[in-house]
Design brief:
Blueprint: H1 8-28, H2 41-71, H3 78-89
Length: 92
């Protein structure tokens, strides 16, 4: 029995050709262009102002939570927990 037309070698050759073509294009370039981000001075000032107040507020909130947990006065709202868990439980 003789099997013709499988042409498997041709598919591999096409893959090699595309790799070689890509390699030739890469050789022509001296280096890859890298993305750059520049932040304006106004944006930097806003970030600094926001960071100082935001950090202090987070620190105060964290300290108040720590105190309430240590005192035993921290209460968890079961309804909020159930609302957050419900979408994960109803994955049918």
């Amino acid at each position: 029995m003789k099997i013709n037309g499988t042409n498997r070698v041709g598919n591999i050759n096409e893959y090699k050709k595309s790799l070689e073509a890509r390699a030739h294009l890469q050789e022509g370039k001296k280096g890859k262009n890298k993305d750059q981000v520049e932040i304006s001075s106004m944006a930097k000032e806003l970030l600094e102002a926001q960071g100082a107040t935001g950090t202090e507020q987070k620190r105060e909130k964290l300290e108040s939570l720590r105190r309430s947990v240590d005192d035993g006065t921290y209460r968890v709202d079961a309804r909020k927990i159930a609302d957050k868990l419900l979408p994960y439980l109803n994955q049918d």
